[in-house]
Description:
The protein has 215 residues and is an alpha+beta fold. It has helices at 46-63, 90-95, 159-188, 194-210, and strands spanning 4-6, 17-20, 23-24, 30-31, 34-37, 78-81, 84-87, 97-100, 106-109, 115-118, 121-124. Residues 1-29 are annotated as: Disordered.
Amino acid sequence: xxxxxxxxxxxxxxxxxxxxxxxxxxxxxxxxxxxxxxxxxxxxxxxxxxxxxxxxxxxxxxxxxxxxxxxxxxxxxxxxxxxxxxxxxxxxxxxxxxxxxxxxxxxxxxxxxxxxxxxxxxxxxxxxxxxxxxxxxxxxxxxxxxxxxxxxxxxxxxxxxxxxxxxxxxxxxxxxxxxxxxxxxxxxxxxxxxxxxxxxxxxxxxxxxxxxxxx
Length: 215
């Protein structure tokens, strides 16, 4: 089967393919939508997954009588964080969680509701000031959380333990899928948790040097 197929409005795309929306080429030609071969094991593309998660977040805000907030005007050194709805799992509802403040003091919180609204605020800008912020359509978007951890991958573990966990994850997501996951979290944690970012980068390069990165 070829790398792309015509998109069928009634049937959509066959298994193993994602829809690529129509677009205008650099020469000004309108390119119709097509089904392109998926580069991951997921049934939907990252772009569509991000859209679906954003719609879900907007629906949660609407349920609580809140509207998707606009960006705040923040002072130098800080960036705007939009308001969002945080949902707690069963284990967190039972055991609670710990919050550590900048002062070093820790608080144990046990939620009494499954959902809580977190107001928009200005938070410390942890990005590289030399790097221009990406365009909205280039932002990483929502991550699929816990997919490496369920195979035993934790960055604090010893190298051999991490590699053993990654081998298990590769059986499910493929070398390319695991490589992309490590690459994204390495970049996102570069300024927030530099120590973790170095480990993610090291393991990403290990995957690239030991596996062929293709579906």
